[in-house]
């Protein structure tokens, strides 16, 4: 995370970049409120039956799409019983080794169809663990939304009732307002938490993801939303043809329709009046109960016996 921030600073400001911006390094550890690592203060995010629902779906799907690969590869490993999970790990090796050194021989082990199956397995994993299908996604993303509204309105956070850090956010030195540019570096799972908390339900329009086949059309593609190096831009714009300041959201260079946000119009450039956006987010914050989501004594069954498309747990 620190390297990402430093690399951005070098690219944006040029070298030397010291003195041209303010860098705030936050602690990612148990007991420290951090909107960029909200799982550290959300106990329910540590309970697998609540926060890791995706593994059930991935196991079921991997057993289908990797069956032939297992039968093909197993005879090549003498004295070792190659499991479906092992084969799935080999696919992961291809992805991570390619990013690390530029190429991986593991990639050659699989067919095009098997790579399509792997791509969908990640949709399943992140949908049910970090996005609209997770009962703890919205509560983990709502703290960042609170900070964003503070920045948009140049107003300090009034009540710290989520993962926001009062020590940092109440200080103008560590959480300055009135700036023209803010850059935050975090993990892809937190990005998905935030997109869920923003109520960008156009990504959830096709509903829960099945574990026995790849849907012909799906509104949720994690390769588009959270690839390596994922980025989200919140742009403030003013146009002579529009009366008030506008906001739009760009996810990995793609404009996101904001029609799922209460009051935002259907607009070809994805624009929404800032005042409308702020009011809708305040309503979202009001309707998101951190205590219930992160500390509540609720349960959800494994697998497809229960679903959410809002990233929220069962209501009290």
From TrEMBL:
List, alphabetically, the Gene3D superfamilies matched: Phosphoglycerate mutase-like
Q: Which UniProt keywords apply?
A: Hydrolase
Report the GO molecular function annotations: acid phosphatase activity
Q: Report the domain of life of the source organism.
A: Eukaryota
Family matches, as PANTHER family: MULTIPLE INOSITOL POLYPHOSPHATE PHOSPHATASE-RELATED, PHOSPHOGLYCERATE MUTASE-LIKE PROTEIN
Q: What is this protein called?
A: Phosphoglycerate mutase-like protein
Source organism per UniProt = Hermanssonia centrifuga
């Amino acid at each position: 995370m620190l390297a990402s921030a430093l690399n951005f600073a070098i690219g944006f400001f040029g070298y030397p970049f010291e003195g041209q911006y303010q860098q705030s390094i936050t602690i990612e550890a148990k007991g420290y409120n951090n909107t960029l690592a909200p799982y550290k203060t959300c106990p329910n995010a540590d309970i697998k039956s609540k926060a890791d629902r995706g593994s059930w779906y991935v196991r079921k799907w991997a057993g289908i799409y990797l069956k032939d690969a297992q039968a093909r590869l197993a005879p090549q490993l003498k004295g070792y019983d190659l499991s479906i999970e092992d084969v799935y790990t080999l696919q992961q090796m291809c992805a991570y080794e390619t990013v690390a050194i530029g190429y991986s021989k593991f990639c050659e082990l699989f067919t095009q169809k098997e790579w399509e199956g792997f791509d969908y397995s990640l949709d399943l994993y992140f949908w049910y663990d970090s996005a609209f299908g997770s009962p703890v996604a919205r509560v983990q993303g709502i703290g960042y939304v609170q900070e964003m509204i503070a920045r948009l309105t140049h107003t300090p956070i009034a009540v710290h009732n989520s993962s926001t850090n009062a020590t940092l956010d109440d200080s103008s030195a560590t959480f300055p307002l009135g700036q023209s540019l803010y850059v935050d570096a975090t993990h892809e799972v937190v990005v998905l938490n935030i997109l869920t908390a923003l109520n960008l339900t156009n990504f959830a329009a096709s509903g829960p993801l099945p574990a026995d086949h790849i849907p012909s059309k799906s509104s949720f593609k994690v390769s588009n939303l959270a690839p390596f190096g994922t980025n989200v831009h919140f742009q403030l714009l003013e146009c002579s043809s529009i009366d008030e300041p506008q906001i739009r959201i760009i996810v990995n260079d793609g404009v996101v329709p904001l029609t799922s946000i209460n009051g935002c119009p259907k607009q070809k450039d994805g624009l929404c009046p800032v005042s409308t956006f702020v009011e809708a987010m305040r309503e979202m914050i009001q309707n998101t109960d951190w205590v219930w989501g992160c500390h509540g004594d609720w349960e959800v069954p494994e697998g497809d016996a229960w679903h959410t498309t809002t990233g929220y747990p069962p209501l009290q």
